[in-house]
Design a protein that fits this description.
Length: 421
Amino acid sequence: MVKMRSALAAAVAFLSASVAAVSFSGFASDLESIKFAINIPQEENSNALYFSMSAPIETSWFAVGMGGSTMKDSLMFMAYLDKSGKNMTLSPRLSYGQVEPSFTPDVGITILNGTEVTKDTMTVSVKCFGCRKWKGGAIDPTSTNAKFIWANGGVGAIKSNSKNAAIKRHGSYGRFQMDLTKAVGPGGAAPLNTTKTEGSLQISEVADRNFMSGAHACIMVFTFVGLMPIAVLLLRVANSPRLHGVVQAVSASLALVGLALGLKVGMMYNRTRKFNTAHQIIGLLVIIMMVGQFVLGFLHHRMFVKTKAPTKLAPIHIWLGRVVILAGTVNAFIGFPLALNARFDLFLLGIVLFMVILSGPLIFWRWRRNIQKAEKEAEIGKPRGGGYQSEPWRGEVGRGDVDLGNYPPPPQPMQPPPMYR
């Protein structure tokens, strides 16, 4: 028993000495959004680094970027849960601006012991190869104020084994600096610390305030699920061509604004940068049809005002509008999964059902009213037979079924008395 205790004590002492022998520089953000530690092996000609990083478990992804204080030309290491949700996937990526970083196969990685997923945190410990220098940047072991950036995804989980996994825009991000001279020493896994080491400094930590993606979605849903059906109701139910035209103009203007936002957002992500997704292709076609439909409606109205007669443009305008509303709504359902927000399809479905429930009775009421109006007009124009006729000169005197024999023909319609002339 004594020998066993001695052996255990020796092992603990050896491990403690090994950990203590590893030089590292560490950083922890003020809000503990991310923790990071790095070790730079002092072996000559080594192009390897050891680093560890961790973030809260509710974060969908987290990353640290080396080489500068901006995303441009940074080498970023992005981590997220693997498919099982019990381990981590690490993806080395290069960033060339304020866009989603792209996976680079030029950097090799080895996952080390210490990588784990707990109920509170995700931690990854790594040795990377070919990561001291990369296209557009490098890390300088002699720098006492080396610049780094970091970012956290929003709440959620990616759960993917792919190093090319699509991500959503970061929910928070920041910058910090480190004294890398303190990280140079014998190579080994960099231990994470709960506080910053000497020479480490947080420069910033802010919440992301970019809402272009959300604005694009809200504008397009409001336009195709809200305004355009309202424009139809204003014409068919309220019988107001003027308000119909105004709402159509507002709809077309908002759709163009939404298109501009969509183009801008599309440039930010790898999955949409080439503009070859179904959502983007259908969206462009819908906008083209919408503009054409608005122009046809404008021309039809001008011609109708002059001639007071239906035009050949009217049915095209009507059917094109129906196609635009349907295609625009379907495209909204396609867009949310593309933005990795498929759960919002349920909210969209609720809005669509609300509009159907709201507009259905109104359209039916107007349809019944039109039928009743047509029947009334037909009844007024029909000649009346038998009974008292207060203005007999307004219609013909009808023949009965009595055989008149040789009776003279019926008299001609009477002339109205002078007071009616």
